[in-house]
Amino acid sequence: MEHEFWLNKWQQQQIGFHLSAPHPLLQRYKDECFDSGPVFVPLCGKSLDMVFLAEQGHKVLGVELSETAVVSFFKERDLATEKEPANDLMAWRGGDYEIFQGDYFHLSSPALEQTRQVYDRAALIALPKPMRESYVEHLEKIMPPDFRVLLITLDYHQDEMSGPPFAVSEQEVRHLYQNAREIKQLRYTSIIDQEPSFREQGLTDLFQGTYFIQY
Ligand SMILES: C[S@@+](CC[C@H](N)C(=O)[O-])C[C@H]1O[C@@H](n2cnc3c(N)ncnc32)[C@H](O)[C@@H]1O
Q1: Is residue 18 part of a domain?
Q2: Does 167 sit in the ligand 1 pocket, CB within 6 Å?
Q3: What is the count of structural domains for the chain?
Q4: Where does the protein end up (predicted)?
Q5: Cβ distance 61 to 115 under 8 Å?
Q6: Ligand 1 centre from 118 Cα, in Å?
Q7: CA-CA-CA-CA torsion sign (97, 69, 194, 190)
Q8: Within 13 Å and on the Cβ side, how many CA atoms surround 187?
Q9: Nearest residue to 145 via CA among 74, 214, 50, 69
Q10: Domain region containing 36
Q11: What CATH number does the domain containing 188 carry?
Q12: CA 130 to ligand 1 centroid distance, Å
């Protein structure tokens, strides 16, 4: 997607993707997938999942395009911040969080080289197909060789709705992450009954997939 698309969404506060509580699947699978080390949250928005991770003792690194999102995240927690340029991005630090504000595709940081865990909720599925390949390629470039990912996807008939969120099937996850040592599907369930607004937009079904990916 164009940067303008997301910056406008934040400007106009059209952030239906933002949840008012930590994601239940993060709570369910965190201990199974992560050790006590830091966690990288790409395309993080101002997600409360970061707060949950910090409360569980993790240092949290994020990257987010929108300055509005980053400023709101720290402001809503009443956290004092300091910021400094980090290549093309701006690194904001406060509490247990370090959020790089700018384009994920320009991110590289020594801090990430020490981070072996990635939490992806609504990041991969926020991107159109050609960008999803670049997203995984970039992740493989900026993370250490033995990283792992807890990934939450949505899947539906793409011709029934234009994204975002985009449909990402299990087959595509396996293709995108073909360089990984292990890809385990933890869960794949229909959630259309809990998401009536998607039915109103024309979807006949909507599945949520959860994967553990180990390099
Ligand atoms: C669907 S939202 C999900 C946010 C968050 N993961 C959550 O669960 O609430 C996608 C986010 O990615 C951000 N984004 C989109 N393209 C980006 C890019 N190239 N670099 C960094 N952030 C980006 C958007 O501003 C938006 O906040």
Answers
A1: no
A2: no
A3: 1
A4: Cytoplasm
A5: yes
A6: 14
A7: negative
A8: 16
A9: 214
A10: 3-12+23-214
A11: 3.40.50.150
A12: 16
What ipTM did this prediction achieve? Answer: 0.99
Q: Is residue 17 a part of any domain in this protein?
A: no
Q: Does 107 sit in the ligand 1 pocket, CB within 6 Å?
A: no
- In order along its 215 residues, the chain shows pLDDT tens digits of 699 999 999 999 999 999 999 999 999 999 999 999 999 999 999 999 999 999 999 999 999 999 999 999 999 999 999 999 999 999 999 999 999 999 999 999 898 988 999 999 999 999 999 999 999 999 999 999 999 999 999 999 999 999 999 999 999 999 999 999 999 999 999 999 999 999 999 999 999 999 999 99
Residue 198 is assigned to a structural domain of this protein: yes
Find the angle CA(196)-CA(198)-CA(201) to the nearest 5 degrees: 115
Of ligand 1's atoms, which has the minimum distance to the CA of residue 125?
A: 1
Residue of 4, 6, 40 with the most ligand 1 atoms within 8 Å of its CB, for mutation: 6
Q: Is 10 annotated as a binding residue?
A: yes
The ligand 1 atom nearest the CA atom of 15: 2
| Distance between CA atoms of residues 133 and 172, nearest Å | 10
- What atom of ligand 1 comes closest to residue 120's alpha carbon? 6
Q: Show the tokens assigned to 63.
A: 């990257």
Q: What is the pTM of this model?
A: 0.98
From the CB of 43, is ligand 1 less than 6 Å away?
yes
